[in-house]
Amino acid sequence: MRRPTLRSDTLWLAGIFAARVGSSVSYLAYAGVLPLLQAEWAMSATAAGSIASAFQVGYAVSLVVLSTLADRLGARRIFLWSTAATAVATGLIPLLARGYGSGLALFTLLALVNGGTYTPGLMLVAERFPPGRRGNAIGWFLAAASLGYAVSLTVTGLLVRVAGWRGTFWVLTLGPLLATLVSAWTLRGTREASVASGIGRLSLAEGFFKNRAALLMMTGYTFHAWEVLGMWMWTPAFLAAVLALQGRELASATGLGAGLSAVFHLMGLVATSTGGWLSDRWGRTTVILMMLTISSACSFTFGWLTTAPLLVLLAVGVIYAFSAIGDSPVFSTGFTEVVDSRILGSALAVRSLAGFGAGALASLTFGTILDLTNPVGSAPRYPVWGWAFSVLGVGALLGVIATAWLRALPESRRMAGGKR
């Protein structure tokens, strides 16, 4: 009886994985074409960062609203609706975006519908898999997003020179379209997860805001999000600037920068698929502390390598990509273990608001520092990036402090079967 269950779980997870890949290709599409949009729409780095920030704020709002609705309407229903809406919103961008204002509105719209493919998906996975296999399963769910980002940036790198950014976006729209079909097929027999009822209801104030372990886990996640979301947003533009400063034409540098960033996200796929597995064996806080320590060192180093040999830059970038996202499934798995399942959707909504709100602020702060530390008129070929990346590293160090505090609490023994 056990083997069919494992086989069924594996097939189900493969379907969710594929759906998450397709629904994630839109998430970093703006980052992939940013140098071209910055030139075409005459944006400063601060203005470019404000679109990224608006996207993250919209995504955070989406997570709050849709995660809370998942507690009431069911995670399955929200996941399916959000995947279909993502396809529509992605297609509207090349159709209607004509400048900064319309771009800001359309990318925010995309963020507002895309959040339902994340936390409701986490709820579905947490409901399906027992604690002993949950870290590995959630790791694969998050790894799917990394693969989606890599696919997005690879497509951008291959097409942007010949099809322009609009043609690239039309092709990327196929991702969430296919994801809608795959998710509908995969979830056709899946019951709704974590639908709240009036029996045994627990308030968020009592079950979450008085839960020390959950609050510290959220704090660590927030600083993790500050670093990784800021890094994801600006790394393709950074690589494009480095290549442009070496003499490449801007469209060529943008395409190659996006393609190289895709390699980083493939490393992120390896990190997220192994990070949860490692935390099942070594403990949640052990893996988080290891990843945050390495990523903070990379944040303080990466941006200063504009004149370094390309192989050195890429080697540091691969380590950066692995460590910055490798703790993400661990934060998510640990969170499901310290929060009561009756309020998990609402608690994930609060956590997401904090995390993606931090990511929004990081993207804007990064762009502002770029403007302040570079010569006027150098956009998008900025020569100085070190200060902006270093600000991301500060967030990672604060995440280390929060996680070390969590590890010292007796409540941390509730994670990973007592391994903390």
Explain what the structure shows.
This protein has 420 residues and is mainly α. It has a single domain (14-186, 202-418), classed as Growth Hormone, Chain: A. It has helices at 2-24, 29-40, 45-73, 75-96, 100-114, 119-128, 131-172, 174-186, 204-207, 212-245, 250-282, 284-302, 310-326, 328-338, 344-373, 386-408. The radius of gyration is 20 Å and the shape is globular. Mean pLDDT is 86; it is low at 194-200.
Roughly how much helix do the residues carry, as a percent range? over 70%
According to CATH, the homologous superfamily is MFS general substrate transporter like domains
Estimate what percentage of residues fall within beta strands: under 5%
In this structure, how is the largest beta sheet organized?
none
Helix run count = 16
